[in-house]
Write a structure and sequence with these properties.
about 800 residues, mainly alpha, 37 helices, about 70% helix
Length: about 800
């Protein structure tokens, strides 16, 4: 089979749905009848033609082929049904072409056949036969390909009926596509040059466009809509010529610029057919290389302004911008820089986009689509040029500023305008440099603004850009304002949304870790600016956002204190003033911390208590005793207001904080530790009292940070006090408490508390040994775990004896 018959089914397939109206059914039925009759004739004549070919009866075969082709002379079939008939004839004609090829191989001159078929009676069959013989004539090389092609394309002018002429020229294009003179082809040289092929294709293309445009005027006016639909389905026949041009190897950039583009554009513009112009402009974009578009951008865009009113310029512009954007991205991924061919693509597109938006009435959604494509192109071609992005965003803001955005499509596209630079930039700081970004953002409905704000925060956290100025903090928080504060109509929060809200606020809280500055004064101002923004979020937000800010303030206070220590220790030259730190001192920082904690205490007293203790430890490291005492006092006040169920847990935290104090005075420490012991004895449940008092022994021994505060006698008093409390507990609770007390005694003994001697250990061991056999399994007491706990305690004591035998000589292990 000849190559031009391959992939012939690439033509459009038609839908056979019938018009439901009675009149429509009558017309459709008539069309089907006419088509069936014509197909029967084609099949019959093709059968006789093939039989004649098998017998090498050329005259007989040509007679039947002419009768078969005569069916294509009809004017009664619609383009849709004519297409079906054409495809059948096309399939049958391959037999005739194959016969001509065989005849040529047997030595028959194609020039003679070329003259013979010209005697067919009617022009349509004659030209189909002529093209069929002509394709073999070119292949035989008896005559230059350029001459045969020129002769064929000229003679096709004899058919001016739109439908018949359109399909005839398509037949010519299909049979000649592999026989065009081109660089490196077998027909180059004597057969012609690539310029001859270009002239042939463009001439055929021009006539095809004219025929296609005239097709819209065929038939009654009442069927115009149906006819336009059929024309749209046939438009691929027109675009095939452009594909042929793009496939020519000899069409270089220079030839495309000088010989091809201007001629093609002239044909498109002069067609004055909106459908033709829309389709062919898109064909030009799709079939020719991206490099060609880059080099001829101005010419192409200028022609867009000459197209008829009603052509969708948005589709053309966005298609070309998206294609070039992908081209630049592809080159970048391969490590290559795009060649702008002396043209700044963004500047060029901007110039023509401005003209289009100024002259034509462009829908808002189309306006946004154009700017989205221009934005993507700008970020791909010139990612460092934030001024381009800024200009596009400003243009969008200008078109949206007086618009109430309530259309779903416009909302979606506006969000796209905002998210494209967000996805492209690796730095949130570049986003903050866009002047009108927030203006566009504020035009969106609240929920959409919040969605964009979440994406901004995630981007900032992902790339970890440091926010180093108060202005940047204010700009960032202005962008994410929907996450920081509800609008009046969105103050309520459904229970089902709480999980999403919590995740959102945790994202906001993580922004605090982006703040940084080498100068402590500037960093303090940054934190204070953030504090101001967080404070506007209401009680349900500050419990998430203020907590990390407290830790950042504490970190800043420590940093200020350390810088002071370093400055004091740095030697200075004689007469030189010592280094002075920033204006903001650590006590000022703690003042802000206490203000924040006071607010948190009203909403979340439990976490606030923990923060008071953490802040007190930090203040102690900064040698701020007054602040330490104030912070601990506030923690004690919160403790007193807490429920008895959690007081034991908070007492543990208070004891740990007091034990970690380093610079506190003995007087203040005694006051605080005594108060803690009093709290222990006032717990509601006796076992809790016992455990709390037991823990209080650690307030006095050992004191790792400040050994001057150690008091072995008070530690022993706490131990003995806890033992007395055990006697007030139920019998089934006592054994476990005895084992816990033994462990604390062992700890003090191991840490060399001189008041805790081996005699106390022996007494506890005897007490447990005496009572443990009476231990019963109850709902409140699990005997097996207590026994394991006791045995592990004894095993630990024996291990310590093996490690430091002399110290444990007086401890009796006989009962173990």
């Amino acid at each position: 089979m000849s190559s031009h018959y391959q992939n012939v089914r690439e033509y459009p397939a038609y839908d056979d749905e019938e018009n439901t109206l009675e009149a429509g059914q009558t017309v459709e039925n008539k069309q089907k009848t006419l088509l069936a009759t014509a197909k029967n004739v084609v099949d019959t004549e093709a059968y006789h033609m093939i039989r004649a070919l098998d017998k090498s009866l050329l005259d007989e075969a040509l007679k039947h082929s002419a009768k078969m082709l005569n069916q294509l002379r009809t004017s009664e079939l619609s383009p849709k049904h004519y297409y079906d008939l054409y495809m059948l004839v096309f399939d049958k004609m391959r037999h005739l072409e194959m016969f001509f090829s065989e005849e040529n191989k047997r030595g028959r001159r194609m020039q003679d056949l070329y003259e013979v078929v010209q005697h067919a009676g009617n022009i349509v069959p004659r030209l189909y036969l002529l093209i069929t013989v002509g394709s073999v004539y070119i292949k035989s090389k008896e005559a230059p390909a350029k001459d045969v092609l020129k002769d064929l394309v000229e003679m096709c002018k004899g058919v001016q009926h739109p439908t018949r002429g359109l399909f005839l020229r398509n037949y010519l294009s299909q049979l000649s596509k592999d026989k065009l003179p081109d660089v490196g082809s077998e027909y180059e040289g004597v057969g012609g040059q690539v310029q001859d092929s270009i002239n042939f294709i463009i001439q055929n293309f021009t006539e095809t466009v004219h025929l296609f445009s005239r097709l819209k005027n065929e038939g009654p006016a009442s069927e115009r809509e149906k006819r336009e639909k059929e024309r749209n389905e046939l438009s691929i026949l027109v675009g095939k010529s452009l594909e042929r041009l793009s496939n020519l190897e000899g069409v270089t950039l220079e030839i495309y610029r000088s010989m091809v583009l201007n001629k093609v554009l002239e044909v498109v513009v002069q067609s004055n057919d909106k459908m033709v112009q829309q389709y062919l402009m898109d064909c030009i974009i799709q079939v020719f290389p991206d490099e060609f578009h880059m080099a001829t951008l101005d010419t192409f865009l200028q022609s867009c302004l000459d197209l008829d009113q009603g052509v969708d310029l948005r589709a053309i512009l966005t298609s070309l911008m998206d294609r070039l954007s992908n081209f630049i991205q592809r080159r970048a991924s391969q490590g290559e820089q795009h060649d702008d061919y002396g043209t700044n693509v963004v500047e060029t597109f901007t110039k023509y986009v401005d003209k289009v938006l100024e002259v034509y009435a462009v829908e808002l959604s189309d306006n946004l689509l154009i700017n989205i494509s221009l934005l993507s192109l700008s970020l791909q071609a010139y990612p460092e040029r934030t001024d381009y992005v800024n200009r596009i965003i400003t243009g969008v803001a200008t078109h949206l500023v007086d618009t109430l955005i309530n259309d779903d499509q416009v909302i979606k596209l506006t969000k796209k305008v905002l998210t494209i630079p967000l996805e492209s930039y690796k730095s949130i700081l570049k986003l903050l440099d866009l002047d009108n970004y927030n203006q566009v953002l504020t035009l969106l409905p609240f929920e959409e603004k919040r969605m964009v704000a979440r994406q901004i925060v995630r981007t900032a956290i992902k790339h970890g850009d440091k926010i180093t100025t108060v202005d940047q903090v204010n700009e960032l928080f202005e962008l994410i304002k929907p996450m920081l504060k509800d609008e009046p109509t969105n103050e309520t929060l459904a229970e089902d949304d709480w999980e999403d809200f919590e995740e959102e606020q945790n994202l906001v809280a993580r922004c605090v870790h982006l703040f940084d500055n080498a100068e402590t004064d500037n960093l303090f101002k940054i934190y204070s600016a953030a504090r101001k923004h967080f404070g506007q979020g209401g009680v349900k937000r500050i419990q998430f956002t203020l907590v990390p800010l407290v830790f950042k303030y504490l970190e800043l206070a420590t940093r200020i204190y350390q810088s002071q220590i370093t400055a004091a220790a740095t030697p200075t030259l004689e007469g030189e003033a010592p280094a002075v730190g920033g204006v903001i001192k650590q006590d000022k920082v703690f003042q802000y911390v206490m203000e924040i904690l006071e607010v948190l205490a009203n909403q979340r007293p439990g976490p606030a208590l923990q923060l008071y203790l953490q802040s007190a430890l930090c203040a102690d490291r900064c040698d701020l005793e007054k602040i330490v005492y104030e912070l601990l006092s506030q923690a004690f006040m919160l403790y007193e207001e807490e429920d008895s169920k959690v007081q034991l847990e908070y007492l543990h935290l208070i004891i740990n904080a007091l034990q970690g104090m380093k610079h506190i005075s003995e007087e203040n420490y005694n006051t605080l530790s005594t108060k803690t012991c009093q709290y222990s004895s006032k717990l509601l449940r006796k076992p809790d009292q016992c455990r709390a008092v037991l823990m209080c022994s650690h307030l006095f021994w050992p004191m790792f940070e400040n050994k001057e505060l150690q008091n072995s006698s008070k530690a022993l008093e706490c131990l003995q006090w806890s033992l007395k409390i055990v006697k007030s507990c139920l019998s089934n609770q006592q054994i476990l408490l005895f084992v816990e007390i033994l462990n604390v005694y062992a700890h003090h003994f191991d840490k060399k508390n001189d008041k805790v001697t081996a005699e106390y250990l022996n007494g506890m061991i005897d007490l447990i040994f005496t009572n443990i056999p009476n231990l019963e399994e109850t709902e409140e007491t699990a005997a097996a775990p207590i026994n394991i706990f006791y045995r592990n305690t004894l095993r630990h004591l024996r291990l310590r004896k093996d490690q430091d035998g002399e110290m444990y000589d007086d401890v009796r292990f006989t009962l173990m």
